[in-house]
Amino acid sequence: MTPYDTSPPPEPVPGDDVGGYRLKGLAGQGGFGKVYLAERGGHRYALKLLPLAGAGLGAWGERELLMLTKVRHPNVVRLLGHWQWPDRAPRFLVIIMEYVDGQRLDVWAATENPSAHAVLRRVLGVARALRALHQHRALHRDVKEANILVRGTDGEVVLVDLGVGSHEDMSRVTGGSLPPGTRAYLSPEAWRFHLEHREQPDAHYRSTPADDIYALGVVLYWLLTDRRPFPLRVAGDEAAVITQRPEPPRVRNGRVPEELSTLCLRMLEKQPGLRPAAAPLVLCVEELLTRDGPDWYVPLCEAFDAHNLTTRPGPGADEEALWFNEVREELPPRRGQRPWLEPSPWSPGTAPPAPNGEARLQPLGRELARPHPAGFPTAGRTAWRWTWVVMMVVLGAAFLLTNREALTPGVNGPTPGLARKVAPDGQPLESSGAAAPPGAVHTPAAIALPARTPKEPAPVTTQNHAGAPQPPAPPAPARGNTGRVLKAAAAACTLLGCPGPQVRATPSPEPCPPGAVETMAALGIDVGDKEAWSFGGGNRYLTVREGWTSVRIVGRDFGDIPNGSVASGRLLFGDRVYGRLTQVKMEGTGRTVPVCFELLTSGSERGLGMEPGDSPDTARVFSVGFLRAVSHFE
């Protein structure tokens, strides 16, 4: 049994030359392809690469190309050319577009904390883009903050990613009762059609211009309140989109002008005929931009400062109390640059932060790395001579101590001078014999011992009757002073370079893919949210290899990611098997989006436990667990 899609996809990487364009980096993912920042002749471009093979991916690329050819407007991304690449045996359709040097709309709003007037300026640009599309009988079908860029030079917006758009002259590509796009922005009529026809495999929802207007209304609602009108977190939440009227933006945020709040509600009307078309919407927004009252020019949200800045709870925090305090009162939305908070001084019982990310044993490392005086042997017989001396002393002490235990039964207390526990920094040495709680002592990497010996069984998480995972029992500590002496021998061997069991280190930290955190937020997934995953084939152990892999999201929808979608990324071997998933292929539409998920065990431990006897190239892991949304890979 092997995981899904174990072979890595053949795709270019930054530094490659694609038809004379040098790829500089991944700019994002949209529709069904990846967008790269590229350079040629000193100018920058956006190159979108769409695979020609796959379930209709070539057809999706042709649709986007046709859409960009038909519509030319300052607020719609500009097409510059296209071809298939490589020249021999082409695998990608390459679409070259203008590079918009700016920010995504959600990032712009979060950092700039705009006023109602500034928000209206950006909405006007999107409305003009939709007017141009609709006049050419084209639909975008995925209007959202992530597909709206705010140019840095003049503040104008550019609508991008027409990959799931449609045109009256195009044939239908998708199947199913839901249209392509992002679930949180789907209109009430789209959800109503889905609920009425989801059991009919041939049913197909036909989008209209009113769907684009509704999606823009969701965008405007978020810009005004920092919240969506209807959060879709679990199955059944879509019923509110059909039946409930959203709370007026001005009620949620008193800084929203009344006229703007009313316009937003008109764009979110349940009946598509009651929403303004794109052309009248442009006129309405232009009219509102003439307002000069002070409430149109104040920031819509409170700014962050040192008194209202909150952080994510650390280890050991009372999550239930934090959640209760969060929902007890509706906090006003906050945006803008976050102030720098000086770190609080460390208190006794906790390890002080290492300066500049250096390990606490760095001074020792520098001392060991210092050049030796001339004539001092640094390796060879002298090192081994010291090794034998230490080993003989320690083993002799172990022999005497073992015989002493045999001559004095029942005496198991600590022996002064032979084995003393080491207290963590800031704590006195032991006076009562009680060890520090697990996790309080930061074991230096140079003398860290394996988590379990090869003979110890792998821990297995079990479920109690209430469904709460029960952590495995910790390994039994070494009994008596002999165990402590042997541990000292192991530490001495480690410091002196004795050969021993090799424990692979934890993989290095790395950032999420560009746009992944913002995409997850747009999909209704917050950092820290979890959902179940499976390699497939039932609950069992299976063999995996380091490298590209995929898992299936199971159980229920993860935000707006449908149940059954496939998340892909890499498995990295260390002291455990770490999974870093960077993209999700949506169930139903086949659309691929960037994400930042890490694999957890069924007990929510980071990384998958390895079994005794695993080789450096393969490992046996359990086939199910949880995945967690993160802001970076630790």
TrEMBL record:
What UniProt keywords are attached to this protein's entry? Kinase, Serine/threonine-protein kinase, Transferase
Q: Which Gene3D superfamilies did the record assign?
A: Phosphorylase Kinase, domain 1, Transferase(Phosphotransferase) domain 1
InterPro entries cross-referenced by the UniProt entry:
Kinase-like_dom_sf, Prot_kinase_dom, Ser/Thr_Kinases-Pseudokinases
Q: Which SMART domains match?
A: S_TKc
All copies of the Protein kinase domain together span 21-289
Q: Which CDD domains has this protein been placed in?
A: STKc_PknB_like
GO MF terms here are: ATP binding; protein serine/threonine kinase activity
| Region Disordered: start-end pairs | 333-360, 407-440, 454-482
Q: Name one Pfam family in it.
A: Pkinase
Q: What name appears for this protein in its UniProt entry? A: Putative serine/threonine protein kinase
| Species for this entry | Myxococcus fulvus (strain ATCC BAA-855 / HW-1)
Q: Which lineage ranks, top first, belong to the organism behind this chain? A: Bacteria, Pseudomonadati, Myxococcota, Myxococcia, Myxococcales
